[in-house]
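Researcher: Sequence recovery benchmark, item below. Answer with residues only.
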């Protein structure tokens, strides 16, 4: 199973978790996998400080998380289906997962051409 490393800020992680966990209402399965657990663990590292600078540094710090193709598909589905069900705009963070998905499709196409 192919995996892809995707770098997100913690702001981005919070946005993904909002649509994939909090507002999913168990409509889309697969949100309990390793990548989702890692994202939840990252947000639990939030400092107890109320200092703006400290919190801002925490939220904008980039984090690289490894996703399987299935997890990428789940995230993309969550970021599309759930906002649409609530008549909300699709989150901009969605494009981060298109790149990985398209890379996976290109790799599959190349493998098919080579006959592997």
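Model:
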């Amino acid at each position: 199973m192919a995996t892809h490393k995707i770098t997100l800020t913690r702001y981005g992680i919070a946005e993904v978790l909002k649509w994939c966990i909090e507002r999913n209402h168990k409509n889309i399965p697969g949100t309990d996998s390793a990548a989702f657990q890692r994202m939840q663990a990252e947000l639990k590292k939030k400092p107890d400080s109320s200092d703006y600078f400290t919190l801002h540094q925490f939220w904008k710090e980039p984090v690289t998380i490894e996703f399987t193709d299935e997890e990428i598909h789940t995230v993309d589905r969550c970021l599309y289906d759930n906002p649409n069900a609530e008549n909300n705009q699709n989150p901009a963070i969605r494009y981060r997962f298109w790149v990985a998905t398209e890379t996976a499709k290109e790799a599959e196409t190349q493998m098919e051409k080579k006959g592997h």
